[in-house]
Amino acid sequence: MVLVGVFRHQLTILMTGQPPKPDVKDIRQGKALLRGQTLAQNNSYIPTAAFIERKKYLCQAYEDGTYLKDKASKDKSPTDLMADPKNMEVMMDGMKKQMMGIVPQTLIMGWIQFFFSGFILIKLPFPLGLRFKQMLQSGIMTPNMDVKWVSSLSWYFINLFGLRGVFALILGGENSADGTRDMTAMSTMGAMGQQPGQPQDFNKQFLSMKDNLSIIYHEWDLENVEQRVLVKYGKQQRIFKSTRK
After folding, report:
1. pTM of the model as a whole
2. Which residues contact 75 (CB under 8 A, 6 or more apart)?
3. 197 secondary structure, DSSP code
4. What one-character-per-residue DSSP string does 80-144 give?
5. Which one of 182, 206, 213, 231 is least enclosed by Cβ atoms within 10 Å?
6. What is the pLDDT of residue 53?
7. Cα 8 to Cα 10: distance, rounded to the nearest angstrom
8. In degrees, to the nearest 5, what angle opens at C-alpha 66 toward C-alphas 64 and 68?
9. Half-sphere exposure of 155 toward its Cβ, with a 13 Å CA cutoff?
10. Taking a C-beta distance cutoff of 8 angstroms, is the pair 216, 40 a contact?
11. Domain span at residue 222?
12. What pLDDT score does 7 carry?
């Protein structure tokens, strides 16, 4: 599995090539969206008047498409965005990386299930509870076996999730050999309703952020903070003096 991970990393580099240099307008789009998220999460730390001004400005900018890389893309449909050659290239790179993750894992899992189905591979040197039986003895229909015995298919999944540190040590932190990272990315994109490699529709995200900002109920956490500090530490000081007496 280590050799397959190294081979997959090198093959991904050869197929995808060097990543394109980031465009200033692309960075601006992402930072503008991050600015709205930061304002929504930390709005209670600024006064009400400042929050209202910031919300008004960002909502208007999101609606007008001020931060869009191409303002003409505001009226384009998702199919038009996917027809863009640059977006097509991004989608192809995403599909290549996805195939590099799916194909090796499918082949190894199929090879293990065909040749070593029902095999016991190792015995753990420490006892475990019965809750680990289903996780450590996949493919074995024996309810009376000790939990310390591990099947070949379970050992494959343990290695799949446990080799991340080894790949980071051999290939560096940003490597393409970690299969769990692809699973996490695919689940995150699925939760957001986005397919792997699909270009982001920033206009849709800006409008969604505008709706989120417009419904926030602002309450300043630092209202009368001076009085609260004086009351809090004044009481503690009086208690401290009374205990000394």
Report:
1. 0.49
2. none
3. T
4. HHHTSHHHHHHHHHHHHHHHHHHHHHHHHHHHHHHHSTT-EEEE-SS---GGGHHHH-TT---TT
5. 231
6. 92
7. 6
8. 105
9. 18
10. yes
11. 2-244
12. 85
* Segments of the chain with pLDDT less than 70: 17-20, 71-90, 141, 178-199, 235-245
How many structural domains is the chain composed of?
A: 1
Q: Kindly report the number of other CB atoms within 10 A of residue 222's CB atom.
A: 11
Between the alpha carbon of residue 13 and those of residues 3, 18, 19, 105, the distances in Å are 16, 8, 10, 18
Exposure on the CB side of residue 76, measured as CA atoms within 13 A: 17
- The predicted structure's pLDDT at residue 169: 86
pLDDT value at residue 240: 47
- At 188, the amino acid letter reads T
String of b and e for 170-187 (b: at least 16 CB within 10 Å)? ebeeebbbbbeebeeeee
Residue 191: the pLDDT is 47
What's the pLDDT score for residue 34? 92
Angle, helices 152-162/85-115, rounded to nearest 10 degrees: 150
Q: What φ, ψ does residue 76 adopt, rounded to 5°?
A: -85, 150
Residue with token string 């999101």 = 62
Token reading at 37 = 């998220």
Distance between CA atoms of 95 and 196, rounded to whole angstroms? 7
Q: In the beta sheet, which residues pair with residue 149?
A: 123
In three-state secondary structure terms, 67 is coil
